[in-house]
Write a structure and sequence with these properties.
Length: 474
């Protein structure tokens, strides 16, 4: 781990010249496309004999994940030409302005993908975090030319291809028979027609993500879920998805993770899940679904259903209140993660209820929560920290609170619970990887309390008074 910006461009390539041939995977958080090209391009020396040609950099690399300033034709061509063993290519950029032709990806560049035919996983994403830029020079023809080389591809992620229509996306589904992971972000021209005849293909999709595809409707989702092996379905920010889509999604018996943030679902729509998919569902996110109320808790956790849910995101729901949290506690579901960011009606009462909750008669106070995100909840005050100290929430590892909480209170809590990560700047908790991991949302590895932690717990018993004193000062 190092900062690429510390190296001069010509020195950077020299450093990697001594990298071992056994290196299989390389991930760089940020590097310019020019540096990537220079790194992988052998120098041109006039009259160079064959015996003195520089060996290729990273000859055995199989997985390459780069975040760059611009994804360009030159960079893509250099990577695919010189890395003969590449099976996994993940490129992401975040332009600060609309790229010029020389610094952009075009149809000519994208058809260079997979020259050696070994690529199994491909991700090309243009992020809109800084500037609303898209791949405007790649259209259906470019995707068609790329798909000709990708018949053995297993995972494809395309983000920001605003000129690609249903024709291009359908080409992928009909040309890549082995694909099981499909992710499309910011596809403004993707409609229900992409999945119109998906049942006629031999595809066995297990992971599908269609974020910010606002032309997708309930009808398209109905066609999509004809793939009954779906285990991860991400429809975040598809604003035309409603209750009818949930009715068909409920029939997916293998579904583990469902993300439908910002959709047009209602409490009654969630009731469909309790009749089917909730028995297999481990992670559910309904963040920003404005029509939901406290009643959604009763519909999700039907008393007659066998619930396996461990991660629940109820953030940014204006009508969710302490009464909804009370309903959640009564169901005694052993949740690992509960997120209720930016819910104005959530107050200290909710923390008191969760702290007093038991999963079973032998369960610990605070149930089994490992992560609790209460950032920017309207009614949270200093009083809540009385319920965040021992013996409550004994398994808690991540806590999100607002920045206006007294620093003295947070410091005292940190001393009392040295293994607790507290976020108060609004950052997303529990995520340590910059790459999108929607398929791992329900597979977190939580460490149990070990002997060292038990010893530290005993050493810090006196910090309860410190928290009380800090609260009094605040």
């Amino acid at each position: 781990m190092f900062d690429v910006s510390m190296f001069l461009r010509h020195n950077f390539a020299r450093v990697w010249a001594i990298a071992p041939a056994t290196l299989l995977s390389l991930e760089v958080g940020y590097i310019s496309s020019v540096m990537v090209t220079e790194l992988l391009s052998p120098p041109v020396i006039p009259y160079q004999s064959m015996e003195h040609i520089r060996p290729s950099i990273l000859p055995g690399i199989q997985k390459l994940c780069l975040s760059v300033d611009y994804i360009t034709d030159t960079m893509v061509s250099t990577i695919t030409t010189n890395l003969n063993c590449l099976t996994h290519l993940d490129l992401r950029d975040s332009p600060i302005m609309e790229p010029r032709l020389a610094f952009d990806l075009t149809n000519a560049g994208i058809q260079q993908i997979n020259l050696h035919g070994r690529l199994k996983h491909l991700s090309l994403v243009r992020s809109q975090e800084i500037f609303p830029a898209y791949f405007k020079r790649v259209n259906d023809l470019g995707i068609l030319l790329m798909a000709d080389r990708c018949s053995d591809m297993e995972s494809i992620c395309l983000g920001g291809f605003c000129q690609v229509t249903d024709t291009g996306f359908r080409t992928i589904l009909h040309s890549c028979a082995k694909i099981y992971k499909l992710r499309i972000y910011h596809g403004p021209h993707l409609t229900d027609l992409v999945f119109h005849d998906i049942a006629a293909t031999s595809l066995t999709l297990t992971h599908v993500s269609l974020r910010w595809c606002n032309l997708l409707t309930n009808h398209g989702v109905t066609r999509l879920v004809s793939n009954e092996n779906l285990s991860v379905l991400d429809l975040r920010d598809c604003r035309n998805i409603g209750d009818e889509a949930l009715r068909t999604i409920s029939n997916l018996s293998k579904l583990k993770a469902l993300l439908i943030d910002g959709s047009d679902i209602s409490d009654m729509g969630l009731s469909h899940l309790s009749k089917g998919a909730i028995s297999s569902l481990v992670s559910l996110s309904v963040r920003g679904c404005k029509r939901l109320t406290n009643n959604c808790i009763s519909f999700i956790f039907d008393e007659s259903s066998n619930c396996e849910l461990r991660e629940l995101d109820l953030s940014n729901i204006p009508n969710l209140s302490d009464a909804g949290v009370l309903l959640l506690a009564k169901r005694r579901i052993p949740l690992f993660e509960l997120r209720m960011r930016q819910c104005p009606l959530i107050s200290d009462t909710s923390i008191m209820v969760l702290a007093s909750m038991k999963v079973d008669e032998e369960g610990w106070y605070g149930s089994s929560l490992r992560l609790l995100d209460l950032y920017n909840c309207g009614g949270i005050t200093q009083l809540s920290f009385q319920w965040l100290k021992k013996p409550y929430f004994p398994r808690l590892r991540w806590l999100g609170v607002s920045s206006y909480v007294s620093r003295d209170v947070l410091d005292a809590l940190s001393r009392n619970r040295p293994f607790l990560h507290v976020g108060f700047h609004g950052e997303e908790l529990g995520t340590t990887d910059q790459w999108d991991n929607t398929d791992n949302l329900y597979m977190h590895d939580y460490d149990e309390v070990d002997e060292l932690e038990q010893w530290l717990d005993g050493e810090n018993e006196g910090d309860d008074e410190a928290i009380q004193e800090a609260e009094n000062i605040a």
